[in-house]
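Ex. 9. Protein: Anaphase-promoting complex subunit 4 WD40 domain-containing protein.
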Amino acid sequence: RIMTMMRNDQIDLYRIQSRKDLSGIFQAEKEVQHAQKTELVGSIEIKSSLNLMCSSISPKGDMLAASDGASLMLFSLTYMKENDDEAVIAIDERVPLEAMHPCSCLHFSPDGTTLACGTLDGPIIILSLPETSDKSVQGNRMVEVKRIFTEHVQHALPMTHMAISHDSQWLVAGSNDHFKGAIHVFALENNEDQSKSYSHWWPLPQLESPHSCLSFIGGESVESALAVACSDNSFYLFDVKERSLSEWSQDIGIPFLRKMPQEIATIPDYPVRLVSNPAEPSKFLLGSHGNFFVVDLSRKIPQSSNYYPSRDLRSKRTWLEKQTSDAKDWTNKRKRSRSTSCGDNVVKEEPLETNFTICLRYNAMLFLEFIGKNEMIVVEQPWAPIFDALPDPLVSKTYGLA
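Predicted structure tokens for Anaphase-promoting complex subunit 4 WD40 domain-containing protein:
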């Protein structure tokens, strides 16, 4: 299990420990007390006068795609271990001439045989990557351009978000067209109907707010659906095959923001990540840089959201504001109508609702993703190195003071 970290001129590869190696960390604790130490496998330096713009690693970790401001690059990765040390060898793969364009977004299919490349000019290039375990073939893979989508190109704006369905049959790409964004669905390899393969399938209708992230949810036991999150923290589910909103979103209605808990609607941030747990296809997480909240499609939408952990300073501040607001509302209601029974004033404790719970456990998140069933990884940016890198504050003497 390999994770990449892209920098201006290099890509660092880290190996994530297995759950067996982490058994001593958890030990039935409610929270992870110690951060996991990932092992740096190696770094791939890109010698170019232009900075890297995007990168993506295949699900098996055997291929790496990257792009700077000039061209697309493709590498085959081989991992070698000697004693306790591990290293990675990157071998350049030949990229077809018609695919040698700078890209703003790259995405591998779940099976690793397809690479979607969103170019800076707008067109989307679909590359076919032959699967092989023969190390002698590395560097000579027959990379083929399957299709170049241009039907969606109107103002030559680059793609900002891409996702491929779990069965590798659908590609979704989003750009920031027309202020509110534009999302297009493309059909990839369709085994049921070959006439629909590699075609522009459906432009999604514009939403009330620009989209900020998108992904496919569902999978093995639940039919796959496209989830699109907006900058106002609302989200919608789409049935791609039927070209319509899903039954869940149709039942909720539009606009969805009015049906959401107030704590979610007033979050001073917007979601940048949408990830789902393979073990529970009906659940997914919407995360920003400072928090994420849990959505369970099988449960009703609560009137208010809870916070975890409740001792977090942000949670306490929000709780106090809510208590003050509730107290004012209760006082106004009591002035309008006085109860004749003392029992009517007793407040019954409702069971804790876990749906739409806001998690404040992590902050300054750079990455959030599920890497297995019930196994999630979060990468945070520590503030201490940032402060250390800042210049010393200016100090000036004031007249009359020591």
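Check your answer against this statement. Residues 313-336 form the longest helix (24 residues).
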